[in-house]
Amino acid sequence: xxxxxxxxxxxxxxxxxxxxxxxxxxxxxxxxxxxxxxxxxxxxxxxxxxxxxxxxxxxxxxxxxx
Length: 66
Prior knowledge:
This protein is mainly α. The protein has one domain. The protein contains two helices and no strands. Helix 1 (3-27) runs antiparallel to helix 2.
């Protein structure tokens, strides 16, 4: 497995985690829990954006694996 495919797999996992946190935040009625989910979702969004940039950069470096 290439580094590029590993980063893409990680990117997909982070997207899934972000979506799960968003759903949990929407379903909770407790303000403290809601805020914790939203804070974690914001962190995952930053990680997702960073990984997306890595996917783009790696796809340029390893075009034969795309």
